[in-house]
């Protein structure tokens, strides 16, 4: 029992909290009443010192918490509930942020690093920006403070001891120093490499939204209403890229791990990040408009503030327990709802009040935009993004309305839409259409002087090609016997136009020798993603239809849902275009590539250890010999499904998984995916015989046999070949003086033969029997008795339910467009950061358009409106 | 009227359309008697029903019907809502794993004839998130 590390950790949390308070106050004082860049040096020194202490304290908190997990200190609740002895080191990082406290800590950690960057690279803005930073840190650290002030619990400490959490366990009365031997483990669903990198990416994105927000607040406070855009812009670009990639990473994890049949389920937890991302991207367009064309500053201010408030709202939604029934995977309610709400309300009210009070002073462009100004189309695009975000926000908040009405005493029964996917898609689809069209038009117009003639010149080629391409797509879809609805045709049209217009922009810029435009690359990526989503989600096709010709007579034959098929073990069944065979259950053995047949393994008393029954070899290399003890991962059972293409005869094998996961309510299925260039084959188990339950065996039928006899076992037969001394195999722990015999039998199955070795043991005149089982056939043989006088042996034969799986399989056409579009988008963001990072000088950016630029920016010089 | 005003009007129009469409799509939590009444009135919109399974004295659920060998896509059970109205529910999917241990069941769908056709089942399992059981410490907390 190590109490020191927890006390050190908790002390560090308190120090971090106090230091953040000091830093916030001194940064505020150093800048109060002074112009930007003329801070009070003594307050500033104190503030820097305090923030540095804050950072060191946070590193210490992280070190302590990681030590608790890494050293398996189960006297602490956090280690006990999130880790276990069997957890591989790389996933210990994931347990760090599985709990709420750890994920807050991750968020705090990123903001410390970003704070250091601001102190280093944005000296001029340091004081007011860091005052906001420290204020936000103060609130975040209070979430993990874990102290009781005046009877109110403030924050939940990750360093709480098990005995402080589970106070009424009787064991504490007998032994207050009781430490469990093992933890309850990391949720096995999260034992996935994506879960190691997805949360840090997402929280880095969360943290990055604070930077433009802090700049905006600093600008409003210091009345430096225009100069903040330049330093804030590169941070916003990084934020947009990181958060976007983080969202798609989450989608990819869901696609690989969960079994709802896709990558996006409109779950509130997903929406909570999607909404601020849309608004963040919209705000980015506002900032670029101001930086390059001196318009849209008010929009930029409003959207930057909105993004941060929405991040706080997302935190409130997912962590306060308000979603309750609505989400499958929100965090545990730690009773911090009130604190979260105060945090949300404080920042929202202060920021909005400050914005309103300065609103009239924010310069606007005097120029009225017309259709030949690309600025107009960028602005419309940003508006479309905000409206799309608004739709998701309005629906996702339905549980919040219910709680709110409940709070003021009115009982409401509004529920989320019954078909959420249809509800969101029908409007988000139009957002996609406008985003793709506008991005194409605005990108082309952005880089040229616009009048009727130049516009027609540059738009003709992409438009004609788009029409041609769309016609081709419609024909191909029809040719394949599928239907395409009008909205889908429009989305195809818009998506193709987005791709071609952005591609032509990139091509023209490169030809004119300017440079690769990050914006055009990112927009090209987005247009590809839209096409990928349209194809993979709109034409996701269930291929596991019942094609046996058998119709089950039920109440509703007209709308029978036959999406799942039953496969008996080792029997083939036809499915659209494929012949499927289920050939057995497999385990993952660390160190052995692929999966190992369960029939090659004897399970032992230790769930995580097994003994090899036969040499375990892959591609000619033997990893374990017969009788070796090896490690297995018992939570996951893999079902080997062989696919054979009925036309080409090509074969491949998929291993969909069933995972024993008590935390998520029992048995969870994860899909297996075979990737082709043009589509994915996605398969998951819908129902299996529960691997946790003992199989019900039929009553044993006894047979008396002599060596050489043949017996019938239901549909199969077996030859009894010999009796020999038992080898030390099945973990029998044979001792001196034991008599152990094993029978050698060969069972003839449909496909192959099986050696069966039931064992008969006599130890201290006690008889023991170790039956042997052929899982493939559902047969078990027990060596019951030996009659030395007659040379006859008695065997018991029992049978069980033959093994089967019920599975669902889908085809996801062109899903690779989505993933490759995401990569392009990330690349585009990266290019923009490099190109715009810190510079933002118009003449340097686009020499070709210099003339117009200067004219327009002269006309649109910021003019404060009184 | 300036162009910017027109633009703001357009935004307000779209936002109102979004609110209206959400209101139209939003479902409600009801009991089975109201679900039946809706069906009788020819209202086939989908509703949410929260309920519990019928259980025998050993807390085992009764009346579950799932026979994968005959039809893997047919699962039927009886659900009792909070006003103690029992209703046969049909779900054209395999039986969800661990259906039997769930404390509370939320279904969405609508009445079709004598049965409730569910197209979605959400299970609430005991101690789904907070770990409160400590093996080897001889007792558990409630």
Can you identify the CATH superfamily of the domain at 28-124 in chain B? Nucleic acid-binding proteins
| Apparent shape of chain B | elongated
**Rounded to an integer, what's the Rg of chain A over CA atoms?**
33 Å
Shape of chain A: globular
What does this structure look like?
The complex is a heterodimer of chains A (866) and B (142). Chain A is 49% helix and 18% strand. Chain A has 866 residues and is α+β, with helices and mostly antiparallel strands. Among the domains of chain A are: 1-186, no CATH class; 565-683, no CATH class; 701-800, no CATH class. In chain A, a hairpin with a 4-residue loop joins strand 28 and strand 29 (792-799). In chain A, helix 1 (3-31) packs antiparallel against helix 2 (41-70), helix 11 runs antiparallel to helix 12 (297-319) and helix 11 (268-293) packs antiparallel against helix 14. With 142 residues, chain B is α+β, with helices and mostly antiparallel strands. Chain B has helices spanning 3-25, 32-40; strands spanning 27-28, 47-53, 65-66, 75-81, 86-91, 104-112, 115-124. In chain B, strand 3 (65-66) and strand 4 (75-81) form a beta hairpin. Residues 127-142 of chain B have low confidence and may be disordered. Strand 3 of chain A pairs antiparallel with strand 1 (27-28) of chain B. Chain A: Residues 842-866 are annotated as: Disordered. Chain A: Keywords: Cytochrome c-type biogenesis, Membrane, Transmembrane, Transmembrane helix. Chain A: It holds the Pfam family Cytochrom_C_asm. Chain A: Belongs to the CcmF/CycK/Ccl1/NrfE/CcsA family.
């Amino acid at each position: 029992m190590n109490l020191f590390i927890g006390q050190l950790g908790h002390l560090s949390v308190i120090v971090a909290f106090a230091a953040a308070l000091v830093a916030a106050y001194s940064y505020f004082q150093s800048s109060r009443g002074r112009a930007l860049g003329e801070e009070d040096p003594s307050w500033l020194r104190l503030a820097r010192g305090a923030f540095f202490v804050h950072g060191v304290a946070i590193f210490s908190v992280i070190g302590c918490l990681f030590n608790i997990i890494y050293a398996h200190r189960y006297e602490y609740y956090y280690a006990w509930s999130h880790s276990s002895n069997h957890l591989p080191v790389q996933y210990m990082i994931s347990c760090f942020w599985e709990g709420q406290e750890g994920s807050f800590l991750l968020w705090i950690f990123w903001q410390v690093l970003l704070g250091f960057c601001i102190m280093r690279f944005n000296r001029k803005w340091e004081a007011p920006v860091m005052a906001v930073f420290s204020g936000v840190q103060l609130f975040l650290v209070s979430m993990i403070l874990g102290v009781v002030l005046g009877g109110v619990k403030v924050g939940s400490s990750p360093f709480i001891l098990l005995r402080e959490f589970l106070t009424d366990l009787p064991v504490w009365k007998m032994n207050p120093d009781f430490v469990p031997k093992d933890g309850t483990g990391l949720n096995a669903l999260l034992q996935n490499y994506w879960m190691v990198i997805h949360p840090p990416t997402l929280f880095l994105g969360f943290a990055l939204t604070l930077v433009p927000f802090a700049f905006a607040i600093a600008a409003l406070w210091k009345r430096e209403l225009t100069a903040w855009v330049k330093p804030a812009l590169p941070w916003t670009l990084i934020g947009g890229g990181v958060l976007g990639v983080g969202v798609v990473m989450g989608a990819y994890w869901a696609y690989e791990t969960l079994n709802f049949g896709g990558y996006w389920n409109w779950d509130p937890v997903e929406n909570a990040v999607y909404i601020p991302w849309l608004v963040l991207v919209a705000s980015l367009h506002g900032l670029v408009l101001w930086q390059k064309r001196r318009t849209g500053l008010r929009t930029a201010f409003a959207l930057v503030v909105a993004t941060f408030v929405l991040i706080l709202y997302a935190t409130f939604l997912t962590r306060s327990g308000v979603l309750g029934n609505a989400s499958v995977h929100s965090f545990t309610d730690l009773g911090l709802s009130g604190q979260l709400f105060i945090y949300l309300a404080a920042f929202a009210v202060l920021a909005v009040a400050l914005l309103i009070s300065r609103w009239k002073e924010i310069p606007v462009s005097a120029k009225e935009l017309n259709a030949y100004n690309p600025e107009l189309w960028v602005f419309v695009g940003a508006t479309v993004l905000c409206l799309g975000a608004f739709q998701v926000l309005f629906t996702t908040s339905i549980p919040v309305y219910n709680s709110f009405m409940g709070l003021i005493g009115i009982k409401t029964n509004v529920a989320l839409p019954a078909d959420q996917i249809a509800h969101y898609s029908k409007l988000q689809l139009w957002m996609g259409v406008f985003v793709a069209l506008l991005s194409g038009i605005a990108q082309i117009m952005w880089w040229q002087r616009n009048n009727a003639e130049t516009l027609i010149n540059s738009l003709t080629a992409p438009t004609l090609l788009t029409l041609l391409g769309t016609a081709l797509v419609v024909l191909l879809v029809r040719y394949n016997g599928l239907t395409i609805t009008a909205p889908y045709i429009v989305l195809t049209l818009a998506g193709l136009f987005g791709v071609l217009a952005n591609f032509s922009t990139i091509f023209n810029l490169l030809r004119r020798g300017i440079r690769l435009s990050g914006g055009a690359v990112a927009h090209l990526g987005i247009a590809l993603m839209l096409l990928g989503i349209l194809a993979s989600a709109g034409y996701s096709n269930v291929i596991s239809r019942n094609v046996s010709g058998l119709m089950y007579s039920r109440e509703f034959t007209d709308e029978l849902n036959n999406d799942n098929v039953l496969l008996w073990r080792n029997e083939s069944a036809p499915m659209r275009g494929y012949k499927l065979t289920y050939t057995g259950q497999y385990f993952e053995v660390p160190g052995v590539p692929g999966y190992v047949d369960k029939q090659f393994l004897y399970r032992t008393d230790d769930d995580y250890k097994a003994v090899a029954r036969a040499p375990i070899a892959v591609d000619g290399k033997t990893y374990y010999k017969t009788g070796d003890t090896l490690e297995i991962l018992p939570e996951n059972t893999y079902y080997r499904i062989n696919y054979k293409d009925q036309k080409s005869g090509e074969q491949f094998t998929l291993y969909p998984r069933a995972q024993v996961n008590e935390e998520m309510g029992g048995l969870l299925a994860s899909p297996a995916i075979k990737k082709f260039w043009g589509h994915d084959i996605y398969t998951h188990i819908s129902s299996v015989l529960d691997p946790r339950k003992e199989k019900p065996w039929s009553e044993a039928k006894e047979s008396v046999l002599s060596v050489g006899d043949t017996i019938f076992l239901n549909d199969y037969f077996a030859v009894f070949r010999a009796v020999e001394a038992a080898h030390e195999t099945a973990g029998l722990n044979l001792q001196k003086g034991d008599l152990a015999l094993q029978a050698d039998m060969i069972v003839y199955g449909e496909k192959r033969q099986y050696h069966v070795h039931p064992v008969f043991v006599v130890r201290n005149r006690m008889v023991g029997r170790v039956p042997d089982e052929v899982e493939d056939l559902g047969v078990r043989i027990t060596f019951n008795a030996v009659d030395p006088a007659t040379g006859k042996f008695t065997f018991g034969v029992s049978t069980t339910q033959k093994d089967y799986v019920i599975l669902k399989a889908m085809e996801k056409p062109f899903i690779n467009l989505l993933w490759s579009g995401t990569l392009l988008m990330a690349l585009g963001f990266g290019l923009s950061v490099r190109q715009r990072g810190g510079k933002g000088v118009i003449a340097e950016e686009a020499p070709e358009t210099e003339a117009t630029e200067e004219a327009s920016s002269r006309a649109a010089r910021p003019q404060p409106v009184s | 009227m300036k162009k910017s005003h027109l633009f703001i009007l357009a935004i307000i129009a779209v936002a109102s359309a979004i609110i209206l469409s959400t209101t139209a799509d939003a479902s409600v939590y009801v009991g089975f008697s109201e679900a039946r009444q809706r069906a009788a009135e020819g209202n086939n919109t989908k509703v949410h029903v929260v309920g519990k399974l019928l259980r025998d004295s050993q807390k085992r659920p009764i009346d579950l019907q799932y026979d994968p060998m005959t039809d893997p896509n047919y699962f039927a059970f009886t659900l009792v809502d909070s006003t103690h109205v029992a209703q046969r529910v049909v779900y054209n999917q395999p039986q969800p794993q661990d259906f039997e241990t769930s404390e509370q069941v939320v279904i969405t769908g609508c009445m079709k004839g004598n049965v409730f056709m569910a197209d979605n089942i959400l299970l609430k399992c005991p101690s789904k998130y907070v770990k409160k059981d400590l093996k080897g410490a001889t007792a558990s907390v409630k």
